[in-house]
Amino acid sequence: MEEHKAILALADGRVFHGRAYGHRGHTVGEVCFNTSMTGYQEILTDPSYTDQIITFTYPHIGNVGINEDDMESADVAARGCILRAPARLTSNYRAEDGLENWLRSRRVVAIADIDTRALTRHLRTQGAANGVIASDGMGEDEAVDMARAWEGLEGRDLVGRASVKQASGWEQGSYDLASRQYAQGGRSWHVVAMDFGCKRNIFRKLADRDCRVTIVPAQASASEIAACRPDGIFLSNGPGDPAAAGYAVTTIRELLELDIPIFGICMGHQLLSQALGLRTFKLKFGHRGANHPVRDETTGRIEITSQNHGYAVCDDQVPEHVEITHRSLFDGTVEGLRLRGRPVFSVQYHPEASPGPHDADYLFDRFVEAMRG
Hints:
Largest sheet: 10 strands, mixed
CATH class of the largest domain: Alpha Beta
Helix content: 10-25%
Order of helices and strands: EEEHEEHEHEHHEEEEHEHEHEHEEEEEH
């Protein structure tokens, strides 16, 4: 049993002992937690989790296995994962592989059988922490030192790493469980999506609404985007510190001079906010899960949302031409905004869900209506 032991060491010196899971080795990243009960595959393959180690607060993870259709990107984006009681059996007609075997094949280091409740309480109290998972015999002191030496996420541009390297098209719509096929996108509206590390389900939501999507790199210039003759511009989610992607802010600021609808999600929301004159800051432990209540300030309606972000938009100095449209009911932080008098808006949360509720699905309809108008 000695070879199956693993440790999780945090930069503040806290060490948890558990069982090796997935690939044997060691990994370092920012340790965060996600409160979703389902959707572990979508979470692990979300590019927004680049360089992070995910703690799943729900104890049983792996029950429905893994399948290619539920991938949100081409590979696992997270650096590792932390589990309480991973499922020993996979039971789902769509499963093509088990979670542990899939993690091994992707060389993802994980740890199981630790007290994830205690870890989550620690992160809520102390804040997000750099950490190391080691299942290769690394000692506690060495693992703590490695966690302390890691550079962390703040000030690092991960958008350039997560983005596509060249432009491409997307026409695949949502997956239909009955027919086991994807719907095909339409041709009525041409959306150019700036890819900061986008989830595939966002593109599918646009394709479902008769949109043809052109995906361009995060470093694409405003003139290159304008040359595509888009009906609308989409700003995607993505990983890392939004303040480190100044090149994208410059491009968005130039795009705002065009009379074209713009819709941003998560990182796209933060970058749009900076282009409009606001600033961003790092949250203590972030918002990650599929049960986050948000209030639409324009209607008073409450939405249950899917979220994944470690940074937020600061509302200490909101320009007159900007309106805050949504706020978190957990901590009051900004969850949405719009440019007064223009079809330009964004939200901090994920209306495309995957996983999560579909309360905010209407935002894609709003974007299409803006293009139609």
